[in-house]
Amino acid sequence: MAIQWYPGHMTSARKKAAETMASIDVVIEVLDARLPEASTNPIVRELRLHRQRPCLKVLNKADLADPEATKAWIDYYNQQDGVKAVALSSKNHGEVARIPALCQRLAPHRNDNIKQLRMMIMGIPNVGKSTLMNALVKRKIAKVGDEPAVTKSQQMHQISVRHSITDTPGLMWPKIEYPSDGLMLAASHAVGRNAIIDEEVAVFLAGLLLDRYPVLLAERYGFSVEGIDAVAVVEGVAKRRALRMRGGEPDFEKASSVLLQDYRDGKLGRISLETPATRRVMLDTKTKLPAVVE
Ligand code: G4P
Question: What predicted TM-score, i.e. pTM, was given to this entire model?
Answer without folding.
Answer: 0.90
